[in-house]
Amino acid sequence: MSYRRLIVNLDAVAYLRQARGRGEPDPVTAAAIARLAGSDGVNLQLRGDRHHTQDRDVRLMRRTVERGLSIDIEPIPELLKVVLEVRPDSAVISP
């Protein structure tokens, strides 16, 4: 028996929100929808310039997604602090 997992990357949702400048679509809402639709988790990419995902997204995401939260970060001390505070289920450090 094979086990498949679906992890939904929400970076494009955050990008679209930032490009529109209107606060929508909301990545936190998208995460809730993805989980209700049966995904095993969600992924965010938090970068030092906060170009797409914001700290607010990460903190609210942790409250919304009980399990299956994954965060990709750059190896920057301030981002490591956010990850240690939020405590996602997994984190990837990538340059």
Outline of the structure:
The protein has 95 residues and is an alpha/beta fold.
Count of distinct strands: 4
Low-confidence stretches: none
Oligomer: single chain
Q: Give the strand content.
A: 15-25%
Main β-sheet, spatial strand arrangement: 1-2-3-4
**Alpha-beta content class:** alpha/beta
Biggest sheet record: 4 strands, parallel
Query: What gap, in angstroms, lies between the N and C termini?
Result: 36 Å
Order of helices and strands: EHHEHEHE
Radius of gyration computed on alpha carbons = 13 Å
What is the number of helical segments per DSSP (H or I, 4+ residues)?
A: 4
Helix content: 40-55%
Average pLDDT for all residues? 92
Shape: globular
